[in-house]
Amino acid sequence: MLITSRPESTPSSAHDRVYRGLRSRIMHGEIAPGQALTLRGIGKEFGVSMTPARESVRRLVAEGALTLSTSGRVSTPELSNERIEELAALRSLIEVELASRALPRAHMALIERLQTINTSVADMITRQDAVGYIRSNLEFHRTLYLRAQAPAMLAMAETVWLQLGPTMRALYGRLRRKEPPHFHRLIIAALRAGDEPGLRLAVRSDVTQGLKMLAG
Predict the structure, then answer these.
(1) Would you write out the chain's pLDDT as a tens digit for each of its 216 residues?
(2) Do residues 177 and 125 lie in contact, with contact meaning Cβ atoms separated by under 8 Å?
(3) Which residues on neighbouring strands pair with residue 74, listed in sequence order?
């Protein structure tokens, strides 16, 4: 009886798997600010050779999710106060516009979905699960912004989230949240009322308040 081995992943699929896995970990704060990564460690974690690991790192460096020093050290960024303020301003500009564009398409099913996600956010806070909190919080925003039907703008927002991921983890630890984000409730209320000025204000406050506290 001839037994054939399972074919290995192609280089492109291996690279994509490593890239998406690392990207998710960084965006959701699973890796601390300034934490060093090695190609060997990445390859071992994902069960791939050095080539897919190297290509994934290059891609994430280009997106600002990782930094590469002159000595070749790869790590997650440690953001200065000025950089945090810049990224908070970008979130305000991009996400307020996305929310505004989503408002005309905010049907009741979307509002109910956002309420469900916000319950998950509250659960993660109760469990003191920082990564789960960040993941659920970003899911809340992404779910709303998908209704804007502005994929290029949403991609820009996700790049900002990616750069902020490790810092958001540090922020969570500093704030020691006990309750769900107050502004999420205001976002939902504004969507229900069709209140665009209220929605824009709630989103702007939600995406900048915590980061300003961290920068301060």
Answers:
(1) 444 444 444 556 888 999 999 999 999 999 999 999 999 999 999 999 999 999 999 999 999 999 999 888 999 999 998 999 999 999 999 999 999 999 999 999 999 999 999 999 999 988 888 899 999 999 999 999 999 999 999 999 999 999 999 988 887 766 666 666 789 999 999 999 999 999 999 999 999 887 766 665
(2) yes
(3) 37, 68
> Exposed, middle or buried by CB within 10 Å (0-12, 13-18, 19+), for 107?
exposed
CB of 47 within 8 A of CB of 58? no
Short-list 213, 205, 136, CA closest to 176: 213
Across-strand partners of 36? 75
How many CB atoms neighbour CB 201 within 10 A? 16
Phi, psi of 120 (to 5 degrees): -65, -40
Question: What single letter denotes the amino acid at residue 94?
Answer: I
CB burial readout 123-162, b (16+ within 10 A) else e: ebbeeeebbbbbbbbbbbbeebbebbebeebbebbbbbbb
